[in-house]
Amino acid sequence: MTPLRPRPGGRFASGLTVGLLLAGLLTPLGFAHQLASSSGTAALATGSAGGEAAGTDGGGAAGGGTSTAADQGASAAETPSATGATGPDGAHPGGSGAAGARSATAGAGAGATDVGVTATTIKLGLGLLDTGGLSQAGVDVVASTASQQEAWQAFIADLNARGGIAGRKIEPYFHKYDITSEPSMRAACLYWTEEAKVFAVLEAFGYFGPPVLCITQEHQTPFLARGGVGIPADYFAKSQGRLFVFTQAGDRMMRNVAAELNGLKTFKGDKVGIVDGGSLYSPQTVDVLQNALTKSGHTVVRRSTLSADLDTAASQVPLEVQQMRVAGVTEVILNIDLVLSTQWVNAASSQGWNPRYYASDWAAMSGDFSTIGMPAAFDGSIAFTVTRNGDWRAGWPEPPTETHCRQIYEQRTGKKLNRSGSTDDNNAYLDAIAPCSPLMLFEAGTTPLGQNLTRNRLSAAIQALGAFAATSLGGASFRPGKFDAPDLIRTEAWDKSCTCWRPAGTFHPGAY
C-alpha cells in the first residue's frame, strides 16, 4: 500500500479513522516464537471455504445461518484460563487450567473440539481492509484487497503444506471491511461469527472500536490483531482473554511515554502542552499521560482537546495554537493523528511559534508517512516507538523473522520485495509480510495443543508463550494477563532532509 497522503482542502473522516489505519499499515505483526520450516508445495485449499473473495460484498458460499447458544458450545460460557504450563524444554506448550483442559463442545463428533473445528479443518476469519471510504473522505490511498488476500493465501499455503495444525488444514473465510465505517466492521464480525462460524479471527491492517468487542465479547471468539493503537484497558477486560494485539495498550503506552520523557536530558517539563482528541478511543487514556507527568513534577500548562469531528477540529487548531503559545508552552506532546498534527505544526510555524515536539506510536505518529507534510520547524522532534521503523536507514540488517516471512511470500507469489529501497518499496515490503505474523502467532499457540483444540486452551497457550520473536518490534512477549505484545521501546528523531524518522537510540525495556 502506498502511504496515505492528505488531499489539500479535503474533508477527512476522523482522527481515529486515519490514525488507526496508519497504525495498521505501520508495522507487520508478531511472528511465531519459533521459526517454522517453509518446505512443501501444497497449495491453499480454495472453493467454498474461501468465504468472500476480494472485491465482493461478503457472505461467501461457506457457512450460513445464525449461530445459537448450542452452536457456540460450552466454551461460549467459559472464561479462558489465564494460566499455562511450561514443558521440560521451556517451550510453553499451553494452558493446563480446568477450563482450558475441557473439551469445549459437549458431545462433539470425533475431532470436532470447538466451534469452527472439524477432524480435518480449522475455520479462520481473515480481514481485508477496504480503503474506499478513506478515499471518499479525502485521503488518497491505494490498497488492494486482492493483494492482501494473495499475501494471506501465501502464508496459509505454507502452513497447510507443512501439515497444518496437528493435521488440520486452515480454511480461510475472507471478508472486507471499511475502516471508516463501524457498521462495515460490525458486518464483518457478524459474517465471521454467525455465518461462517469460524474458530478465530485474524487481521493485519487495523480494526478498532466496538466491532472488536463484537468479536471477542459478544461472540466470544479469539481475535489476533494488529489492533488499534491505544486500545483501552477495559477492552481486554471485556474480552476475557480472547484479544491479543501487537501494539501497546493505551494506558501502558502513555505511562511509558511519560517515563521516556523523564529520562530525556532535553525535556525540561516545566511548560508542557498536550494536544489530544480526534476521537482516538477515549480522553481518559491521555489523562494517564497527564497524571504521570504531574506526578513526576512536570507542569502541564495547557491541554487542547480537539473535537472528534475533523471539520470542527480543523477549525479549532489555529485558536488552540494561539492559546497554547500565549500560555508560554515550550514543549508540545502530540496525541492526535497525522492530519491534525500536520495542521497543528504548520499553524504554529505560521504564527512564528516553534516549540519542541514529542510524539509516539499513538495514532502511528512514529511512522514516516504520518509526517510527510511537516514543515522544517518539525526538525529534531522526538518520538518514542516500539517498532523498528527506519532500521534500514541506519544500515541494520533484516531480522531473521522478517527474512523468513519475506522468503515465504516471495516463494509463494513469485514477487520480489525490497526492504531497503525507497520509502514506497519499504511500505510494500511491510504490507506484504504483515499477514505472516498473526498466522504464525496462531500456529505457535495451537500447535502444542495437538488434537484437543479449544478457544480456551488457545488463550492459555498464547499467554504461556513468554518471549516472542516479532517482526518490526524491538522485543515482545505474552504472559498470563499480558495481551499486548511489545516490551522494548526506543527513541527516534525527525530529519527534515528526508522528512522521515531516524533511529536515535537503542531498544530498552519499557518502564511498564
Task: Name its key features.
single chain; Rossmann fold; eight-stranded mixed beta sheet; five-stranded parallel beta sheet; 512 residues; 2 domains; alpha/beta; 16 helices
Q: Explain this structure to me?
A:
It contains 16 helices and 17 strands. Strands 8, 9, 10, 11, 12, 15, 16 and 17 form an eight-stranded mixed beta sheet that branches. It has 512 residues and is an alpha/beta fold. Helix 5 crosses helix 13 (400-413), helix 6 (182-195) runs parallel beside helix 7 and helix 11 crosses helix 12 (338-350). The protein is globular. The longest helix has 17 residues, at 145-161.
- Total helix count? 16
Strand content: 15-25%
CATH topology of the largest domain: Rossmann fold
Q: How much is the average pLDDT?
A: 79
Gap between N and C termini: 33 Å
Rg over C-alpha atoms, rounded to the nearest angstrom: 22 Å
Kindly give the count of domains: 2
CATH class (first level) name of the largest domain = Alpha Beta
What's the overall geometry? Answer: globular
CATH architecture of the largest domain: 3-Layer(aba) Sandwich
CATH homologous superfamily heading of the largest domain: Response regulator
- Structural class label: alpha/beta
Largest sheet: 8 strands, mixed
Topology, please?
Layout: E1 5-6, H1 15-26, H2 69-72, H3 98-101, E2 121-130, H4 132-137, E3 139-140, H5 145-161, E4 169-178, H6 182-195, E5 200-202, H7 210-218, E6 223-225, H8 233-239, E7 243-245, H9 250-262, E8 272-277, H10 283-295, E9 300-306, H11 310-326, E10 331-335, H12 338-350, E11 356-360, E12 382-385, H13 400-413, H14 423-433, H15 436-446, H16 455-463, E13 466-467, E14 477-478, E15 488-495, E16 500-503, E17 508-509
Parallel strand pairs: 2-4, 2-5, 5-6, 6-7, 8-9, 8-10, 10-11, 11-12
Antiparallel strand pairs: 1-3, 12-15, 13-14, 15-16, 15-17
Helix pairs in contact: 5-13, 6-7, 9-10, 11-12, 15-16
